[in-house]
Amino acid sequence: MTISSLVLSILFIGIGATLVMDLWTVLLRYLGVTTLNYAMVGRWAGHLREGRWRHAAIGKAAPVRGELAWGWLLHYATGLVFAALLAAIAGEGWLRGPTLWPALLFGVVSVLVPLCVVQPALGAGYFATNTPAPLKSCLRSLATHCVFGLGLYLAALGVAAAGN
Questions:
Q1: What positions belong to coiled-coil segments (predicted)?
Q2: What is d(CA 97, CA 63) in angstroms, rounded to the nearest whole number?
Q3: How far apart are CA 156 and CA 89, in angstroms?
Q4: Which residues contact 50 (CB under 8 A, 6 or more apart)?
Q5: Is 6 exposed, middle or buried (0-12, 13-18, 19+ CB in 10 A)?
Q6: Which of 20, 41, 122, 156 has CB atoms 3.0–4.6 Å from 98's, for a disulfide?
Q7: What pLDDT sits at residue 53?
Q8: Closest by alpha carbon to 21, among 92, 111, 123?
Q9: What pLDDT, in 10s, does the model give residues 9-63?
Q10: DSSP string of 61-122?
Q11: How far out from the chain centre does Cα 146 lie?
């Protein structure tokens, strides 16, 4: 596999998996379930540029110009980084013939990033301990990252099929 085909594969897998996750969150919102507002991620990133890593409550922090766009950009950039990590761990063989379990396992493990990095930085605490229903919040994050793992697999299948 050439470097350019590897990069293209990672791009398509990362974007595809993130799109699958976004479709899941659209369904959740339709069902009345609150999901992450990516503008808050963008707000956090805006304050990060000023040296502020953690917030007591990101919703109460001063708004940042372009925060929604920054939030979505970071969301998709994270999907790309995760796709690259999965490709590095699972290897070229997996990219040529993707199987479900490595992608699903990676999706499950990836939930540690929001639970241990993003949520504390936004003021929700480690494992959402500062939210009204921490277990419910953690389970929702886990389900979303399982869907992301499924998206990694489906997108990789598409990339592999296109390459054959």
A1: none
A2: 45
A3: 14
A4: none
A5: middle
A6: 156
A7: 87
A8: 111
A9: 999 999 999 999 999 999 999 999 989 899 999 999 999 988 898 999 999 999 9
A10: SPP-TTHHHHHHHHHHHHHHHHHHHHHHHH-HHHHHS--HHHHHHHHHHHTHHIIIIIHHHH
A11: 11
- What SS3 state is found at 54? coil
- The average confidence (pLDDT) of the chain is 95
For residue 124, pLDDT over 60 is answered with: yes
Q: What is the mean pLDDT of residues 124-150?
A: 96
First to last CA, the chain: 13
Region of 148 on the Ramachandran plot (φ > 0 left; ψ -120 to 50 alpha; else beta): alpha
Half-sphere exposure of 143 (CA within 13 A, CB side): 12
Calpha distance 97→91 (Å, rounded):
10
Dmax over CA atoms of the chain, in Å, equals 51
